[in-house]
Automatic annotation (TrEMBL), chains A, B:
GO MF annotation list: DNA binding; DNA-binding transcription factor activity
SUPFAM superfamilies: Putative DNA-binding domain (SSF46955)
Name listed for the protein in its UniProt record: Transcription regulator MerR DNA binding protein
PROSITE patterns: HTH_MERR_1 (PS00552), HTH_MERR_2 (PS50937)
Pfam families on file: MerR_1 (PF13411)
Keywords (A to Z) from UniProt: DNA-binding
Domain HTH merR-type: 1-70
Tagged with keyword Glycoprotein: no
Amino acid sequence: MYSIGDLSRRTGVKAPTIRYYEQMGLLEAPERSEGNQRRFAKAELERLAFIRHARDLGLTINSIRQLIGLSGHADRPCADADRIAKEQLASVRDRIAKLQKLEEELERIATCCTGETVGDCYVIRALSDHSLCGHEH
Amino acid sequence: MYSIGDLSRRTGVKAPTIRYYEQMGLLEAPERSEGNQRRFAKAELERLAFIRHARDLGLTINSIRQLIGLSGHADRPCADADRIAKEQLASVRDRIAKLQKLEEELERIATCCTGETVGDCYVIRALSDHSLCGHEH
DNA sequence: TCTTGAACCTCTAGTCACTAGAGCAATTAG
DNA sequence: CTAATTGCTCTAGTGACTAGAGGTTCAAGA
């Protein structure tokens, strides 16, 4: 039996966040002590590790809820779980591509500023004038 | 003189978002028609394009407010503008690095699932078990 | 056994950058 | 002149937490 603080230390998830996950239905309401404090079993520790891991991978609370729903039915085809992971992968790749364009452009903007005052600052001119951009966005 | 809809079409920023920017102090309160509708001058169109561009680059509303503050004083050194751009670049690079780790891991997870049912689904096992990860996160 | 201080409880509100909707008023095209 | 479109303000919702108030419980030392 772990207190919320134990769980927090073991998983690196802050206590208010654990309560939030419970509220969002990712964790089941745990047992309580006589004084109404949460007492978690090992299964909950493992589930929280799962949630933490999935969040680190960028899955939304909703996706995680779906995965938890799936894992309750070990006999069902795993195509859904696979689909969720693939969707997540696609979205991550998309975000990377967008950020790389930004990187390129910010690089140009931030390294080309040779002006002494704001009046001739390349940063500000580049932000004002889209035509200075290397590409569309 | 542009209506809010004109401005929206010209900059690709939705009308409610334009009002929001005004409320946040990024745009000055524009003139109004007799019937209390916003009428924007060309300067506001340009400033909105600036804001749009900066938002596309991932700058926060706060950073943009700072830049707008700077650009009002064309005689001040542009080191601040430069710093804001550099900070932004660093944060973008950071995000890219993190996402690339995720990509790697999701790739492994999503392409290795050969199980037929959730019970032996690699996706779910990998999410539960951090030790299956290729690296720390 | 008592006491102290840390950890815990619930509840509300705040964050960011919008977005959606209700319920009206003004403008514009035919 | 009328109908359709566009605009107005205001409130509330989003996601995933985080912070704070104001109170209760627990565990360890004296």
